């Protein structure tokens, strides 16, 4: 399945590139400048192209080789054709990224690999269909629909949740959507030691996550 509004579509058909998700664009500023991005189930690469245009090296993974071929030769984008649902995770176990981006795609057994692919400080930006979508269109298969609170449960407590939504959108078409932006916060022995020496009446050093986008 690739980044389309029809997760049941054959692997040989893919949509026009289209605009990046507004959710992805809203939180892209949290990704470390120049940090590597993993675009999972990228399709023709609307998000891979977006991040590459902003100076991020991108690894785009999809089972649709034809969709990936549309990015051939684009600077900053590497592609990998892989069937993530019927084969092992295609990346080395130690491969980590400043951001992992997933939209319009759900294969629950990949959640551990997606979280493990986040480097310290890395940002997970995830958006896909939720239960209730079967009342307004496709996808309607429960395997492709998140249960209430499911993304939130997947991300906590391992990640710090910056933003989370679970509800209904009327545009660009009616859909029930769940989406999250979460960060694997940086923790080092130095910072832990420093925190332990901070008096109780003083605040600990904090990372600022800009919510304005």
Describe this structure in words.
There is one protein chain. With 213 residues, the chain is of the alpha/beta class. The protein has a single domain, classed as Rossmann fold. It is 18% helix and 24% strand. It is globular, with a radius of gyration of 18 Å.
State the helicity in percent bands: 10-25%
Report low-confidence residues grouped into runs of 5 or more: 4-15, 188-196
Can you give the mean pLDDT? 88
Count of discrete domains = 1
General shape: globular
Radius of gyration using CA atoms only:
18 Å
CATH class: Alpha Beta
User: What does the largest sheet look like?
Assistant: 7 strands, mixed
CATH superfamily: Vaccinia Virus protein VP39
SSE string, helix = H, strand = E?
Answer: HEHEHEEHEHEEH
Measured by DSSP, the beta-strand proportion falls in: 15-25%
Strand order in space, largest sheet = 3-2-1-4-5-7-6
Number of helices: 6
SS-based class: alpha/beta
| Strands, total number | 7
Oligomer: single chain
Distance between the termini: 29 Å
CATH architecture: 3-Layer(aba) Sandwich
Properties at a glance:
single chain, 7-stranded mixed sheet, 213 residues, Rossmann fold, 7 strands, alpha/beta, 18% helix
Describe the SSE topology:
Layout: H1 22-27, E1 37-40, H2 46-53, E2 58-62, H3 65-69, E3 77-81, E4 97-103, H4 111-116, E5 118-129, H5 150-155, E6 160-169, E7 175-183, H6 189-196
Summarize the structure.
This protein has 213 residues and is an alpha/beta fold. 18% of the residues lie in helices and 24% in strands.
